[in-house]
Design goal:
323 residues; Arginase, Chain A; two-stranded antiparallel sheet
């Protein structure tokens, strides 16, 4: 993809990016996402960001923490696969994400399965509370990830991340001593969704979570609904955390994910999403999750995710000034 570099003056308020690899896979049903951080580095993500003018601090990969058994109701615990490992990851990631966010710059968390967002976003939320900043979450995903131990059909905890972050009581024991800084469901926007379990659908409606599914995108195009979300958030000058799941993309473009669903975002739709977020100047932190190199084809998905991240950080065909 031949593009002209826009760089950080064309949007973001920060010129420093911190990368952290989170080689986790215990929250997913298919092994392989622990190789995601290495694949993104091999695809050239740090160099792409440096070429755009950012100061890139690659902090390496986290070491898998020692499992921790949370004080969870036994009936709920039995419905959560690899609970002790996910609890330990959540608490360790929370501490790293809090420190990285508080230090300034834009933290980029390279995963790893989507359960890691229970730690990243809770840590970001804690830092935002301390800085008196409002946090909003844009969840780019084929799935809602709003199951609970009572509703999960699989027990895989990457499908419970948003329920945890918005305060589900049965999952609250996963939090460490600091406790969970809850994200208001009204500040969460799901975008690109096309696979939602029945009980998730009910919970999303009950909690007032905004959902832009692929039918709405088919009817309106991708720019109109995303533009409304970003305009609303820009008026409030929020810290925007973007949680990007590789399965938001159509699997014909991105086969390297264990949770592929047909009918996802096209190449140009995905780049437009990233370009619009960049132009808004709102991005404060980022997850890149569910990249599974074991399922990929000669690095196609890793390269595409790296290219999309470059678009998110200002790589453009022509230099444009944000509105």
């Amino acid at each position: 993809m031949t593009k002209h570099e826009g760089g950080f003056p064309n949007g973001f308020r920060e010129s420093r990016v911190s990368l952290l690899g989170i080689p986790s896979e215990r929250g997913a049903g298919t092994a392989g996402t622990l190789m995601g951080p290495a694949a993104l580095r091999t695809a050239g993500l740090p160099a792409l960001l440096a070429d755009l003018g950012y100061r890139v601090d690659d902090r390496g990969d986290m070491t898998p923490p020692v499992p921790v058994v949370p004080p969870m109701d036994p009936a709920a615990a039995t419905r959560c696969r690899n609970l002790a490992e996910i609890t330990a990851w959540t608490r360790a990631i929370h501490d790293e994400a809090h420190a990285m966010t508080a230090a300034g710059g834009i933290p980029v968390f390279m995963g790893g399965d989507h359960s890691l967002s229970m730690g990243t976003i809770s840590g970001v939320a804690r830092a935002c509370r301390e800085a008196n900043r409002e946090l909003a979450v844009l969840w780019l995903d084929a799935h809602a990830d709003y199951n609970t131990p009572a509703t999960t059909p699989s027990g895989n905890m990457h499908g419970m991340a948003l329920a945890y972050l918005t305060g589900d009581a049965s999952l609250a024991p996963l939090a460490g001593d600091e406790g969970l800084v809850r994200v208001s469901p009204a500040n969460v926007s799901l975008f690109g969704v096309r696979s939602v379990d029945r009980e998730e659908r009910r919970a999303l409606a009950d909690h007032g979570v905004e959902v832009v599914d692929m039918r709405q995108i088919d009817e309106e195009g991708i720019a109109a609904p995303l533009g409304r979300i970003l305009a609303r958030l820009k008026a409030r000058n929020v810290h925007l955390h973007v949680s990007f799941d590789a399965d938001v993309l159509d699997p014909s473009l991105a086969p390297g994910t264990g949770t592929a669903v047909m009918g996802g975002a096209t190449y140009r739709e995905a780049h437009l999403v990233m370009e619009m977020i960049h132009d808004s100047g709102l991005l404060g932190s980022l997850d890149l999750v569910e990249l599974n190199p074991f399922l990929d084809e000669r690095g196609r998905t890793a390269r595409l995710v790296a290219d999309l991240t470059a678009s998110l950080f200002g790589l453009t065909v022509l230099h444009r000034q944000p509105a």
